[in-house]
Amino acid sequence: SVSSQSRCRTFKVLVIGDSGVGKTCLTHRLCAGQFPSRVEATIGVDFRERPLDVDGEILKLQLWDTAGQERFRKSMVQHYYRNVHAVLFIYDVTYPASFSGLVSWIEECRQNSVGQKIPRFLVGNKSDLRDPRTTEGQVSQAQAMSFAKAHGMMFFETSAKNPPIKRVNGQRGDGEDSYQL
Ligand code: GDP
Ligand code: MG
Looking at the whole model, is its pTM more than 0.80? Predict the structure, then answer.
């Protein structure tokens, strides 16, 4: 008979966005439970996994932490999008260029997922660095929400560094745990 271990289903999530927005820290936080003490630049793709309890069924959450280098990406990009269950588009809330940069990542996703309907999430990371006294030089939540709406995405702001991971729109869950993937 098949053991429960081998039946464990994998939930593949692709983590996309400009260099430096915190993809590696965020995936590390989600899988290891803490902000990494030091990170090295990602080359190609790194995989991080953790069990994920969905209504009593244990899935294997597999995060694909990607990097943008052209020469690696071109040959790999089709593998990234193959059998993917969700895509997280990450930007840095304190670095508007990383928000504008998402347009090309969304286009890459579109080109590589023709005929698939993949749930996509807009994630504004480094919320701990937001300056509450000004919106200057930052991506506002209103701006991000309208972008998410226009592209049919859910929107979250996160911090890989400081808890809690907050959900900004969509339905409220039972508490923090609901958002810690
Ligand atoms: P990646 O290129 O998208 O993988 O970005 P990294 O995960 O390597 O992070 C880039 C830099 O941003 C590093 O110096 C991290 O320490 C920092 N960083 C990442 N996430 C956060 C966050 O949520 N808050 C703060 N304050 N710094 C972060
Ligand atoms: Mg990285």
Answer: yes
